[in-house]
Design goal:
CATH class of the largest domain: Alpha Beta
Largest sheet: 6 strands, mixed
CATH architecture of the largest domain: 3-Layer(aba) Sandwich
Number of strands: 11
Strand content: 15-25%
Radius of gyration: 18 Å
CATH superfamily of the largest domain: Periplasmic binding protein-like II
Structural class: alpha/beta
Distance between the termini: 25 Å
Number of helices: 12
Number of domains: 2
CATH topology of the largest domain: D-Maltodextrin-Binding Protein, domain 2
Order of helices and strands: EHEHEHEEEHEHEHEEHEHHHHH
Shape: globular
Length: 288
């Protein structure tokens, strides 16, 4: 059985999917037709129901939950892994003020990696008045800030390891903000499958993906050429930091703590009327 699969070319995704798509493990008869896209493109592909299996932002999941369900394996959650808001001009830090400030933040221009990214959701929680947003591919945001095209940049992925050496300053770590507010790990992205797939197929996908993550941990250099191929010009040091930051025990299995963190994010977003209501369960093994 061949299934369409979408994930990003970022090292954390290529690390966990390598064994699965290259049949280094038992895939239980499943074959995969893979597409590599940035996370916001993947978000929109799930909205259009283009993929049987996809990585997506947890924020975007709120808009796809009627058609997709979250697997136990493959998620990116953790502590100290959140998106960063950066600037070239330290005066903007004072102008923005503390989280919750409504006075001046709306005058500042900010580049974001996508409307439906979890990063943008967290930015809205911390600075709801910051509304002058421009959507950029995540890898272009540092340059947009450096060139003065925007006042602030919301960075994700490997850029959190490179912004300082380019002379940029951190305004706030939105992951740290979330952790202090909730005491929970921050849910960034997960792997979803179409609800319309047969139950046994969904469970097979979940088992195979878990097996793939476990294989990656047991053989961390096995997929190095594949990871490098998609990491483009990224230095190996940054590549390994990226994997270490975003792939952890939650990637093997969400567990109860991971589920509670995801549920809390949804509950907060619903309370603020930031996402639509749903009567669907978020989790594969708690479906209704």
């Amino acid at each position: 059985m061949e299934l369409t699969l979408g994930f990003s070319p970022c090292p954390n995704d290529t690390f966990i999917f390598d064994a699965m798509i290259h049949h280094k493990i038992d895939t239980e008869g499943l074959q995969f037709k893979v597409s590599y896209d940035d996370v916001e493109t993947l978000n929109h592909k799930t909205f259009n129901k283009e993929l049987a299996i996809s990585k997506l932002s947890f924020h975007a999941y709120a808009y796809a939950v009627d058609d997709y369900v979250l697997l136990d394996a493959g998620s990116a959650l953790g502590f100290g892994v959140g998106p960063l808001l950066i600037t070239k001009n330290q005066a903007h830090i004072a102008a923005l003020g503390l989280p919750g400030n409504q006075k001046t933040s709306s005058n500042l221009r900010v580049a974001i990696p996508g409307k439906y990214t979890t990063a943008n959701f967290l930015l809205g929680l911390a600075f709801p008045a910051l509304q002058n947003k421009e959507i950029r591919v995540f890898s272009d945001i540092e340059d947009a800030v450096l060139q003065g095209d925007v006042d602030l940049g919301l960075i994700i992925h490997e850029n959190r390891f490179t912004y300082q050496e380019k002379g940029l300053y951190k305004v706030i770590d939105l992951g740290d903000f979330w952790e202090k507010e909730t005491g929970r790990a921050i849910p960034l992205g997960g792997i979803v499958v179409q609800r319309s797939l047969p139950d046994d197929v969904k469970q097979r996908i979940n088992r195979v993906l878990r097996r793939s993550v476990e294989f990656a941990f047991e053989h961390p250099t096995s997929g190095i050429d594949f990871i490098r191929q998609h990491a483009q010009a990224m230095r190996d040091e940054v590549m390994y930091k990226h994997i270490d930051l975003y792939v952890n025990q939650y990637s093997v299995d969400l567990g109860e703590e991971g589920r509670q963190a995801v549920q809390l994010m949804f509950d907060k977003a619903l309370d603020l009327k930031l996402i639509p209501q749903t009567n669907k369960s978020l989790f594969l093994n708690d479906m209704r």
